[in-house]
Amino acid sequence: MTESSSGPAAVPEPRMRRPGFGSNILPLALITAAVLGFLMLTRENFATAQNLNSILFGVSIEFLAIVGFTYVMVMREIDLSVGSVFALTGTMTGALLVAGWGFWPAAALALAVAGFIGFLNGFLVVRFNINSLMLTIGTMLMVRGLANVLANNLGGQTYPRAFRQLARTNVFDVRLTVVVMVVLVLLAWGFQRRSTLFRKMCFIGENVKSATVHGIQVGRIKILAFMASAMTAGLAGIFTASRITSADVRMGLGLEFVMVTAAIIGGASLYGGKGDLRGSALGLLLLAAVLNGMIMYDVEPVFQQFVIGLLLIVTVAFDTIMNRRRG
Amino acid sequence: MSIRKISFLRVQRLEQESLTLGVALLMAVALALLSPAFLDANNLASLQTSIAPNLIVALGMMTLFMIGRFDLSVGAVMGISGIAAAMALDAGAPMPLGIAAGLAAGLAIGAFNGFMVAYLGINHLIVTLGVLYMTRGIIEVIMVGAKLAGFTSFPASFSALGQWSFGGISAIFVFALLLCLCAELFLRLTFPGRSLLFLGGNPQAAEATGLNRRRIEFWAFVLSGGLAALAGVLMTARIGMANRYMGEGLEMQIFIACLVGGGSIGGGKGSYVGALVGVLFIALLTNAFNLLAVPSEWQAVVIGGVLVLVVTVDAILVLRKAGLGAPSSG
After folding, report:
1. Transmembrane region positions (chain B) (predicted)?
2. Interface residue A309 vs chain B (CB under 8 A)
3. Which of A292, A317, B31, B157 gives the lowest tally of CB atoms within 10 Å of its CB?
4. Mutate to test the interface with B, among A92, A271, A313, A322 (most CBs of B within 10 A)
């Protein structure tokens, strides 16, 4: 099963005329549907409305976090601090609410902090030409530490009721985040198809020197993408904090690797120049289905970590073999 | 960096190493003044216990740094080799076989890393991070249902291996220092040693002169895995238990140690003495956390902050080097 799910990474053609659009969405959707169908047919407790709802709900929250992340990857950078920023923003919003703040100021302040972390990542990467993999591991540790400071201070207190209700907000019987995900996927479709900004981003990812020569403001776009990545991760963190109802030091642990794997399955590449938010969403759904399926098949939960690591290596291996720059 | 004329340190390429050593010594003096417990025999013993395995792991990591690679799976490798050795001993294997089992686990993981990076050309950070995850997953699977302390009963000879000491100086510590000395001599006096830095500094030129980059990379990863395994086995013998926590988060400490000790992410720099100095710095930093009772979550903040700082400084130095006209390796 783990092998079959690595398949989609092998599908994209090495170079597309219109990067980021219409790449490997259809095969990926078919594979995801096949995995879901397989689980539905073989495990009767998979196809329950409750289980499917919870998968979709989980994916829709993670999806928020992958929005900025995907576009950072398009520009041949990476942001491994998303998991920590996710935790910090969620915990911080909760902590401020416990301290008696209103929801909007608390969320705004937490998101501003996330934006600042993103700015810091982007600024350091752009100004000093730092390898973003390395830098964001550093910020990942730092921000994780700060999130844990907050979480430990809260000592497992539950958040105020109003905040806990946020993630359960429904729009026409569908979770708010699911609606947001659908809207964002549609917007991303248009963005990737029509916007010059997205073309510029792909160009930066393909060849940063030539992009600079052609007058694209590489630095500004990169910093904005890092900020977007941190802020969308923060938004997801706020919803997650509301969903899990109390401070938890394990929140968002390892999320960054799920993001990398899902984004690459969805058509992004460590070598930049492409990426597709719709694909990233499908990648998240596929991973969630595989992990959920493992639980359905009574695979030891501790084995999940192994599978996430394996999927990461396998997808990156495919990515490398398919997209490596020659010469 | 303040040395302008060509000094001994510059000739020996030990500028950053001596700077870090200076900072580490300052920290040691400050700690001795601030905390009376620092010079306590117990604390000095625990410092040795933390420096020795870290140094052994850092020797492997520094080798990778010289050729522009690194290995984030070392902490997990350390953990799993300790467990592998403990399991073999638990099953009644004689001591050499137990040690061999631990080393074999590390060498195998190192070979996997090396194969993926050197022969398939996959990003080393992703490969070793993925392996870190997989190995931690395997450790969890092995330790399901085990007590938190893990394996604790070992033959007396195995425990004696770890606890052997003369006059307050642990044998493992001396062994690690000797290993470091040998590695430094290898680096400075032999052709394969010199070629490591050459390869890292200018891969194209090195390959053009006939160095086999892939093979060197592969064996460097095997070396890193093997040394991490050695450290894991020795630590298991030293502390008398093999559990799922051994080596957790170690990779970042070693990584930082190598960077502050003169290594560079870009490759072509570094020395084994630098690894020693860097490990000393990190050990003193962690020791300071413990002596001054800093909460563990703040320790993560500081470690992350040091990493960001070190990576930024490293990038500035690389930029400056590129500004002088040296070819960039990107």
Report:
1. 21-39, 51-67, 74-93, 99-126, 164-187, 218-239, 272-292, 298-319
2. yes
3. B157
4. A313
What CA–CA distance (Å, rounded) separates B76 from B276?
21
DSSP B146: -
- Residue A23: CB atoms within 10 A of its CB come to 23
- Tell me the shortest Cα–Cα distance from A230 to chain B, in angstroms: 17
Q: Do B300 and A144 touch (CB under 8 A)?
A: yes
Residues in chain B: 330
In this predicted model, what pLDDT tens digit does every residue of A158-209 receive, in sequence order? Answer: 888 777 877 777 777 777 888 888 888 888 888 888 888 888 888 888 887 8
Which tens digit of pLDDT belongs to each residue from B112-136?
999 999 998 888 888 898 898 889 8
ipTM: 0.75
Closest CA to A91 of A278, A247, A318, A279: A247
* Number of domains within chain A: 1
**Looking at beta carbons, which residues of chain B come within 8 Å of A264?**
none
Measured distance CA(B16)–CA(B59) in Å, rounded: 17
* Contacting residues of A for B258, CB less than 8 Å apart: none
For residue A51, which amino acid is it? N
Q: Is the minimum CB–CB distance between A135 and chain B shorter than 8 Å?
A: yes
Q: The domain containing residue A173 runs over which residues?
A: 2-323
